[in-house]
Amino acid sequence: MLLYLLRHGDADSAPVLADHERPLSIRGQKEIESVARFFAASKTTVSTVLTSPLVRAQETGAIVEKTLQTGSVLTSESLVPGTDPASLFSELSARSDPAILIVGHEPHLSGLISILVTGSETSHIEMKKGSLACLAVQKPLQRGAGVLRWIVPVSLMEIDATP
Questions:
Q1: pLDDT digits over 67-109, tens only?
Q2: In sequence order, what are the residues at sequence separation of 6 or more whose Cβ sits closer than 8 angstroms to the Cβ of residue 111?
Q3: In Å, how far are 2, 63, 89, 144 from 137, measured between CA atoms?
Q4: What's the average model confidence in pLDDT over 107-122?
Q5: Neighbouring C-beta atoms of residue 134, cutoff 10 Å
């Protein structure tokens, strides 16, 4: 199974909003539109977009799904920051999808990558906003059994939409 892990784009920092309510900023929307175009240009196929319930992750997932047209955006409580990775491992292991896009947050995503690749949460992996990673994993998901194929920061995916 291929797991694509995407950190949400830049979020609005208005102090009147609770953290879980913060939407993407205009900049964040543009970043994620670039990620979606990069994904589409790479001919990558995912069958499901699995997102955190936080607003900025939901918006990120919706932008990418609109471009990729997966037809399936699901919300997972296992992607709330601070959640035990074991719950996500169980959820993913039960799915039959050959490739899934996971939209979440830091430090949760880098911790997941570290656990899947090295077996430890202490690896120094950084997922900047809008970064996309690809991991190859076997089911059931196990610590240290994944292979990190690549991580691409949003700055390398910024593809102009105009001809």
A1: 999 888 999 999 998 898 889 999 999 999 999 999 999 999 9
A2: 85, 121
A3: 6, 26, 11, 10
A4: 92
A5: 17
Check if the beta carbon of residue 3 is closer than 8 Å to that of residue 137: yes
The beta strand positions in 32-145, using DSSP E, are 48-51, 73-75, 99-104, 132-136
Helical axes 108-118 vs 85-93, angle rounded to 10°: 70
Please give the C-alpha separations between residue 102 and each of 135, 147, 154, 157, in angstroms, as whole numbers: 11, 16, 16, 18
Domains of the chain, CATH where assigned: 2-8+20-156 (3.40.50.1240)
Read off the pLDDT of residues 20-65 as tens digits, 9 standing for 90 and up.
Answer: 889 999 999 999 999 999 999 988 889 999 999 999 999 999 999 9
Nearest Cα to Cα of residue 151 among 121, 119, 114, 99:
114
DSSP letter at 11 equals B
Residue with the two structure tokens 């593809």: 159
CA end-to-end distance (rounded Å), the chain: 35
Q: Kindly report whether the global pTM for this prediction surpasses the value 0.90.
A: yes
Alpha carbon 114 to its chain centroid, in Å, reads 14
